[in-house]
Specification:
Radius of gyration: 17 Å
Number of domains: 1
Strand content: 25-35%
CATH class: Mainly Beta
Largest sheet: 11 strands, mixed
Structural class: alpha+beta
CATH topology: Cathepsin D, subunit A, domain 1
Order of helices and strands: HEHEEEEEHEEEEEHEHEE
Oligomer: single chain
CATH superfamily: Acid Proteases
Number of strands: 14
């Protein structure tokens, strides 16, 4: 966790923060659009929610089969779950990381094994997550999301799935297949193809 990120979250918590969600127009079947081009390369779109007070993005997930909400943090090199929520997701005993790693001065970091992680219905090839006490940061995130935020999605997930982010809409594109590029049949991205981002209903 970077200090600047923490400062922005803590400052925003003092405001009447809300989460904005404009309708997402996802157009994989319309030639000439980014959606269509990325669809042909095997990307699937996952909807994001924007915290209006800070501009940070939130992504719905399923961790070990349970619904979760994470901040998308491109500056975090690992994905993190707050210590207070680890047991609720069935995470076993976390083991210490080499060198007694500390996440941005927040607290000591450990690793726990996970059975499954999905973002917007896309299976993530992730079998470990960092567990640490986010403390005041987790509390500060709550008013941005209108409820509990369980942790951060970092570069480990984004790199593994070749993430592309459309900040304006906002959408997160991921390749689910374990290859890059992972082209699909043109029919999948045609006029009768996928009409909405993965798990779009879970983003409202």
């Amino acid at each position: 966790m970077r200090p600047a990120f923490a400062a922005v979250l803590l400052a925003a918590a003092c405001d009447a923060a809300t989460v904005s969600q404009a309708p997402v127009e996802y157009r994989p079947g319309q030639a000439g659009t980014v959606d269509h081009a990325l669809c042909l390369l095997g990307f699937t779109a996952v909807p994001l929610r924007r915290a209006a007070a800070t501009g940070h993005h939130l992504v719905a997930a399923r961790l070990n089969g349970r619904e979760a909400l994470f901040v998308l943090d491109t500056g975090a090199n690992v994905s993190v779950i707050d210590d207070d929520h680890a047991a609720a997701f069935g995470l076993g005993e976390a083991t210490a990381m080499p060198g007694g790693a500390v996440i941005g001065g927040v607290g000591s970091a450990r690793q726990a094994r996970i059975d499954s992680l999905a973002l917007g219905g896309i299976a993530i090839r992730q079998r470990r997550i960092v567990v640490t006490d986010l403390g005041r940061l987790a509390t500060a995130m709550e008013p941005l999301a209108g409820g509990a935020v369980h942790g951060l999605i970092g570069q480990d997930v984004l790199n593994e799935h070749r993430a592309v982010i459309d900040m304006a809409r906002p959408l997160l594109y991921l390749i689910e297949a374990d290859r890059d590029p992972a082209p699909v049949a043109a029919e999948r991205c045609g006029a009768g193809g996928e009409a909405a981002p993965a798990n779009a209903s879970g983003s409202s």
